[in-house]
Design a protein that fits this description.
- Chain B: This is ATP synthase F1 complex delta/epsilon subunit N-terminal domain-containing protein.
- The complex is a heterodimer.
- Chain A is an alpha+beta fold.
- Chain A is 37% helix and 20% strand.
- The radius of gyration of chain A is 18 Å and the shape is flat.
- Chain B is α+β, with helices and mostly antiparallel strands.
- Chain B has a five-stranded mixed β-sheet, with no helix packed on it. In chain B, strands 4-3-6-7-10 form a five-stranded antiparallel β-sheet.
- In chain B, a hairpin with a 4-residue loop joins strand 8 and strand 9.
- Chain B starts with a helix and ends with a helix.
- Classes of the chains: A alpha+beta, B alpha+beta.
- Chains A and B meet through helix 1, helix 2 and helix 3 of A and helix 4 and helix 5 of B.
Chain lengths: 70, 203
């Protein structure tokens, strides 16, 4: 049974739906008027610390603490 | 020996019951009773063990469909950070599905629609509320409940027209100069979203 629908262009380029959806949402947020823009950027800030492990010990952590960019 | 139990049962069940469910029923139409022939054969083979449960035994019963079409559509419009509309009874909703603007009335056929960037309007009497939706999904159920989920939805007044024009020009230029597939896709998305916003503001 052949697959039916044509794939969307972003799927064909190797992008997942979540990436596509997040890009769309970020673009819309960038086009808002103040103060809504500041509110939404504030809301979407992420803070995380990532550390890779080697030989059972955590290596130096990488700290990401900024608003997500497209 | 217990590993063989399922094999022994399927052998005895297929031998015992000549009627096998070859035509699959829809999940809303299946009876809630458990298959008695299976349970009997199981008890013969493994009397001390409970028969295995199926996923349907853990599910709540499906909401029953009204016999007549309800007069109002119940809308649940949610965003990741807020519940915009919760159980609101409206007359009609127009959603920006990928297949085009779709009007949803009470009694709409059950549908799952993927949304594209565009305007969603909620009609209540003479009141029309419009939102610009970035993307998401709309689940229309048989009992005239519509669950619409979007990642970002803003009232049209909150969009800055000059930034939209700037963005549109920027991404059109990026699309022309893009090299890799991924860059082209990103630029294409930018052009689509900004043109949708442009159309929303002017239309």
């Amino acid at each position: 049974m052949a697959s039916s629908a044509a794939v969307p262009f972003w799927r064909a380029a190797g992008m997942t739906y979540i990436t596509y959806s997040n890009i769309c949402a970020n673009l819309v947020r960038k086009c808002l008027k103040e103060p809504y823009k500041a509110e939404s950027m504030n809301r979407e800030k992420v803070h995380f610390s990532l550390s890779k492990w080697a030989d059972g010990k955590p290596q130096k952590p990488v700290l990401r603490s900024d608003a997500p960019e497209v | 020996m217990l590993r063989q139990a399922s094999r022994l049962i399927s052998r005895s069940v297929t031998a015992a019951s000549s009627k096998s469910v070859t035509a699959r029923a829809f999940s809303t139409e299946l009876p809630s009773t458990i298959d008695s022939t299976f349970v009997e054969s199981w008890k013969k083979v493994a009397p001390n063990m409970d028969p295995p449960q199926t996923p349907s035994s853990f599910m709540k019963p499906r909401p029953s469909n009204a016999s007549s079409i309800p007069t109002k559509l119940t809308v649940n419009f949610v965003l990741p950070y807020a519940s915009e509309l919760s159980g609101k009874e409206v007359d009609m909703v127009i959603i920006p599905a990928t297949t085009g603007q779709m009007g949803v009335l009470p009694g709409h056929v059950p549908t799952i629609a993927e949304l594209k960037p565009g305007i969603m309007s909620v009609h209540e009497g003479t009141d029309i509320k419009k939102y610009f939706v970035s993307s998401g999904f709309a689940f229309l159920h048989a009992n005239s409940v519509a669950d619409i989920i979007a990642v970002e939805a803003v009232p049209l007044e909150n969009i800055d027209a000059s930034q939209v024009q700037k963005g549109l020009a920027e991404f059109t230029q990026k699309l022309a100069s893009a090299s890799t597939d991924l860059e082209k896709a990103e630029a294409q998305i930018g052009v689509e979203v900004h043109s949708a916003m442009n159309a929303a503001l002017s239309g």
